[in-house]
Amino acid sequence: MSEARRLELAALDRLFEVLRSKGYRIIGPTVRDGAILYDDIHSSTDLPRGWTEEQEAGHYRLRRRSDDAHFGFTVGPTSWRRFLDPPEEVLWTAEITAEGSWQTRPSPVSEAPLAFVGVRSCDLHAVAVQDRVFAREDGSPGYTRRRASALWIAVACGESAATCFCASTGTGPRPDVGYDLALTEVLEEGGAWFLAESGSPRGRELLERLPGRRVDVEEREKGEDIPRCAAEQQVRRLDRESARGLTSVLEHPHWDVVAERCLSCANCTLVCPTCFCGSVQDTSDLSGERIERTRRWDSCFTEDHSFIHGGSVRPTIRSRYRQWLTHKLATWWDQFDTSGCIGCGRCITWCPTGIDLTEEVPRLLSSSSEGEDE
User: Fold this and answer.
1) Which strand (E) or helix (H) includes residue 281?
2) What is the pTM of this model?
């Protein structure tokens, strides 16, 4: 058990000061455009203090809390993925030299190290999943650089959204891996405070620079009860092990039922913190003497993504939804020895028609199609 310390609210701004002094670009939750998004922040005043969300299938609304909690929400439409694997990134450029040959240059590295503040446990697990995709020899050099220098300050969930199911996938609500510093916000009548625990040498050094004291047994128990209660609030669940059986029901008639509702809009893949589909585009200037290769986010829900000579191999919405769900929950294990789902519920909240994979998977795995959604 790591040493835990009690930090008062004043330590939060001290944390921001220390991070800035170390040259970090600080990314954290903030209210913008009617949602809680991850973006550049500079102090605790940028945090969504006193705000939370209402989430259900196809529904998201901000609302005021009855207290001034700094982290009294769950997850919004963005994830940390967009900072480690940007939606658009120049991979390299090539120019014709005076001698008439082509010279290729990788994209310059001039980014400040990233400090992520307010990371939920499910998203820490999502980053670990993406590491298996990008942080390897044939992966993404840009991702690997940003990931290696990033600092992770996690926050335990004090409550769960209606669409959360991380307790059933073993990925939350309490941070257990991948963080440098973990905070639990404890709200009491006498004032809020944070239970802080380090998870790495960098986190321990950071914690030593913050004003605080060791917690007693009662204070530790209070902090540990908070994510435990959040887990008990969850009503949705997903058995990740049984979901691997989706590859055995590829012709189940329920795929057609889901396809009738699916708009193939790609919302689920764009908000998912583990999806990684991308496309590569080469462009040249008007002179033809300079070429730029760019990688952009893509989605398996777009018809062009599966286009090969002669047309798309997944021309129907049924085939594209089936590809997404079977890859995410089944064949991902074959590729990366893990599931591609971390129980955050974003795909449920941000689906315009409210398709809920925690409902669809059991239906698809049912041994009989009798009474199939008539």
Assistant:
1) strand 278-284
2) 0.94
